Amino acid sequence: MTITTAITTVTTTATKTGPALDTVHLLPQTRQLRALHTIIRDRHADPERFVTTSGRIIRRLIETALDLLPYEPFDVQTPVGRTYHGLRPATGICGVSVLRAGESMEHELRVMSPGVRIGKILIQRDKVTKLPRLYYSALPADIDRRSVLLLDPMLATGGTALAAVEVLLGHGVAVDDIVFVTLLSAPEGIDAVHARHPNLRIVTSAIEERLNENAYMIPGIGDFGDRYFGTDVTR
Question: By its UniProt entry, which InterPro entries does this protein fall under (predicted)?
C-alpha cells in the first residue's frame, strides 16, 4: 500500500487472510488543527507555546486512540433513578513511550486515564550499522493482557517504530492490541510499518509530503524532542 499526501480520511488496507481493516486514522484536518500545526511548525515558536500547543494536539490523538480500544457494556444508575446503558474499557490500558520524545505524550494520557501504567523503551540508531538498537525497556509484567498505546511523536523511516513493536511482541503483546500514536508521519514510515505489520493501527495528526535525503520530514517540524524539552542547540 502506498500512502499519499491526499489522504484525509482513514486508509483501508486489505489483507490476504481476512477482511479489510482500518489501519491509519488521520485526525480531521480542521482549520483549528491547521492553526495549531502552524504554531508548532514555526521555527521561531516560543518554547512554552510549543509545549502547550503540542499538548492540545496530543490530547486529540490520545482521545482518538482510546476510542479504538475494546469496550464492554456497563450499566449505571443516574441521579434520577434511571439506568444508563453505558460502556467501560474491556481490557486494562498501558502506555509505552519511546524515549525520549515519547515522554512528551505521557502527561495527556495520564490526565485522560488516571492511574494508567506507563512502560518505557529506549531505541537509538547504531552509529556504525545505522540500524535501530534497543538499549533499555521497562514494561508492566501483565502487558500481554492489556491494550497498548505506543507513544512516539515522529514516524519517519519507520525503523524505530518497528523495533519498538518487536519489543512488545517479544513480551507477548498481539499486534491487534497495539495502537501506535504519533504526531507526524512520513509516507515512507507508514509503508515500512505496514509492510511488516499490515494490521497495526496508526493514529496521527498529519501525513507529511516525504522524507528528504537526510530522513527529515518535509515540511516537517525539526527535532520534536529537542524542541519540546528545550535542548534545541540551534536556538
Answer: PRTase-like (IPR029057), PRTase_dom (IPR000836)
